[in-house]
Amino acid sequence: MHFELTEDQAMLAEAARRMSDEVLTPILLAEPADQPLSKPVMLRIYAHLAEFGVTAARLAEPAGGSGLSMLDYGLIMEQLPPVIALSLLSHDGSTVRFEAGASEALKAEYLAEFIAGRRIVCTANSEPNAGSDSNAISTRLEIEGDRAFITGTKMWITNASICDCMVVSCSAGKDAAGRPMPRRVLVDLAKSTVGLRETALCGLRQGHLCEVTFERTEVPVENLIGEAGDAGKFMTIVWNANRPLIGLMTLAIARRAYEVAREHASQRRQFGGVIAGKQLVQQDLSDMEAAMVSARLTCLYALGQLDAGARSNGLSAMAKRLATDAATRVIDRAMQICGGMGITEELGLAQLWQDARVFQVPDGTQGILALIHGRDITGTAAWR
Ligand SMILES: Cc1cc2nc3c(=O)[nH]c(=O)nc-3n(C[C@H](O)[C@H](O)[C@H](O)COP(=O)(O)OP(=O)(O)OC[C@H]3O[C@@H](n4cnc5c(N)ncnc54)[C@H](O)[C@@H]3O)c2cc1C
After folding, report:
1. Which atom of ligand 1 approaches the CA of 130 most closely?
2. Residue 45 has pLDDT above 90, yes or no
3. Are the C-beta atoms of 294 and 228 separated by less than 8 Å?
4. CATH for 233-378 (1.20.140.10, 2.40.30.10, 3.40.640.10, 3.40.50.300)
5. pLDDT band (50, 70, 90) for residue 190
């Protein structure tokens, strides 16, 4: 068992850190902090991500992707600005969902564009009445000759307002046992009409989260992907990998708050000495470090298990829940260590808390993650 990064991994993480610090963060700082980034800005960001080789990070090399190990991908993700990492997670995961089942003609038209980051793709599954119960989608798919029509509403769709294409989960009826048969359909926004409404969030405010409406949106039947009933499987495959990645992204936010608190504690003097020298402040810092290190190792372990081909639904869910819980608690303690300064806008810790808090919802809420883990532990699914 090795806990050291290999030389290649250390170089990869360092290169990602440099791209983040020297290229991506300056782009973000030049834009309003509380507004979704424009599409031209996102395309600039994607050009850098493509050059770095992460726009199709987990797509296998024979399919044109980078074929990165999930562990290596995690080491990169924790270096990226979180708002960019979330967008990338959607794009890269959607590329996987597209590639697995799209016709050769469809791939010829779109795949190289997604890989190059010239066209951004997202996944639209959640609906007003289908959140945690992701199979309960009701967006209707009707096929008439060589055309297909989509009718329904999607909610909380990352990247939707800056994307070129969406992989939309549609209801294609029920199987003989009465189970829903969701089907993937590619919608090209240059060729089909959809309604888009941005949803403002309390965190990651330069990001994009949209409601998307389809009013008999027309697409060619060639845009149907895979088989009726297989959409859920490809949602889960991507979610299993996304969860520890989101954990690492959230912990990176917590680490920033921790560093602010540590620095503050080493400067701030009360009762005749720096507060870093007071026992309870040291205990707080120790608890924070312990929570971050243990959660990060769990996320990396979950990614390593995915690379090893192990079934890791429960482990991935556990890793995300542990990490996103730890992160918000760490940031809360960081705010407390900074006293009055901790709740000022000047120090920015409250915004970090809000950014981290966002990650407790996508790709499985804390409750649902506990149930996925619980199912692996007990063999019984508690949500049915
Ligand atoms: C930042 C962000 C990005 C997102 N990106 C996308 C995207 O790109 N594409 C997409 O399709 N969706 C996306 N989503 C949607 C996301 O997947 C859903 O928000 C999530 O699945 C939760 O659904 P919900 O919000 O409807 O909450 P609900 O399902 O209504 O859950 C509300 C609460 O009830 C609890 N709960 C629900 N069912 C049970 C149960 N059986 N037992 C115990 N507790 C339960 C949950 O844990 C939660 O605390 C995104 C969401 C966010 C916040």
Report:
1. 26
2. yes
3. no
4. 1.20.140.10
5. very high
